[in-house]
Amino acid sequence: MDSIIDLTYNIEEGMATFSAHWHIPVEITQLGRHSFEGRETRKITFGTHTGTQVDAPLHFIKGGTSIENIPLNKLMGPVSIIDFSHLGSNGIVTREMLESITLKQKIIFKFGWGKYWNTKKLYQDYPFFSKEAAEYLVSIGVEMVAIDTPSPDDSRIRLQGEILGSSQDSPIHKIFLGNGVIIVEYLANLNDVNDYSGWNIIAFPLRIKGADGSPARICIYK
User: What is the rounded CA–CA span in Å between residue 190 and residue 171?
Assistant: First the structure.
């Protein structure tokens, strides 16, 4: 192994989390202390979609695969890294863009959005996938789509009221997860990646029984 790059954000209090009641802020409480108990331990409270994370199909697909049942071979292996950082705010990944690229079964899309980590801009106007692009990736057998944004969906869709649970709610999530394509979100440190060939990825979530997703330690190496 000649090179390894960690693509994971720290889990810490005050970190970015999506503003909705189905996501919660991180809380870390010290329990054991060297000066009293002779050891350090902590209680950590966070949601299943905190920080750098893996989405299981169960996240949006009723009866879908939960996080501990995702085959490990879907979470590791050779990866294509595609630089789409030129797309900018509300840029759309189209089928035509993808058809001209040779793609592996696992793909990292670098949108350059990591510069907005822990800012209000993180959740606003990030690039996203068209329905046709998502369906194309499914059709060619892609197993993993990894991104440095919070979601593969259009951020301008307001997740409230009648939209929640409707066909307008997170349609790209549903295309990917409904076809067994694992989604990895909030990748860190992609600006450290300038050579895009020859990489492998490891994206291992916590083994939480019955969970819809999990924070994960994710790296690329070659």
Answer: 26
Q: Could you list the pLDDT tens digit for every one of the 222 residues in the chain?
A: 789 999 999 999 999 999 888 899 999 999 999 999 999 999 999 999 999 999 999 999 999 999 999 999 999 999 999 999 999 999 999 999 999 999 999 999 999 999 999 999 999 999 999 999 999 999 999 999 999 999 999 999 888 788 888 888 899 999 999 999 999 999 999 999 989 999 999 999 999 999 999 999 999 999
How many domains are contained in the chain?
1
Let me know how long the chain is.
222
Asked, for residue 9, whether it belongs to a domain, the answer is no
Q: 3-class DSSP state for residue 184?
A: strand
Residue 136: enclosing H or E segment and its boundaries?
helix 131-139
The tally of CA atoms less than 13 A away on the side-chain side of residue 34 is 0
Determine, yes or no, domain membership for 12.
no
Contact 177, 61 (CB under 8 A): yes
How far is residue 176's CA from residue 184's CA, in Å, rounded to a whole number?
A: 11
Show the domain range for 113.
Answer: 48-221
List, in sequence order, every beta strand (DSSP E) within 3-143.
4-6, 27-32, 41-45, 53-55, 76-78, 80-83, 92-93, 106-110, 128-129
Residue 166 lies in a domain: yes
Can you give the CATH number for the domain in which 137 is found? 3.50.30.50
